Amino acid sequence: RYYLDFESAQFAIPRWPDTRPYQQLPFQWSCHIENEPGDIRHRDFLDTSGQAPMRACAEALIDTLDNAGPIFSYSRYERTVLHQLAARFPDLAPALTALAERLFDLLPLVKAHYYHPAMKGSYSIKAVLPTVAAALSYDGLTEVQDGVGAQLAYEELIDAETRQDCQNRLSAQLRAYCRLDTLAMVEMVRFFENA
What we know:
Mean pLDDT: 94
Order of helices and strands: EEEHEHHEHHHH
Radius of gyration: 17 Å
Distance between the termini: 19 Å
Largest sheet: 5 strands, mixed
Low-confidence stretches: none
Number of helices: 7
Strand order of the largest sheet: 3-2-1-4-5
Shape: globular
Oligomer: single chain
């Protein structure tokens, strides 16, 4: 089993050739990999070069996700990103399309079969996580606590004027945030399997 989450940036003024204003451009992903129950490892990708990250992002993902096994996500966003990457890189399209076909979106499952009053009407992963795994929380994260925060942190991270110590801090926070999203999915699946 694979648990996948992307983060992307949207620039009003395109930063890289062959990109459009406000186009979602993936720069990061996190993946928890479960080869057998309880045997979990983590892989991730975060481009910090300031160059267009999309191809390196796609290639690293293809290398990580192998050729079999379900890929869990928490919305249709991951499918959209994979299809956009396939359209951008025709030579990678067969592999990226094959990954998209393996996706299983947990959000419709949660909406159909689970609700907790602490969610306060929200089905966001941040609202569901504390109700299924109380020990995990987004509250401990500092600068990067959501997708908007991730995009702002990435923009600062790749800015040539940003000091190295700040880049290191932002990189660590981006990795921690994206990692928590995929760990949240691992915990959700465990919760539903044991319900």
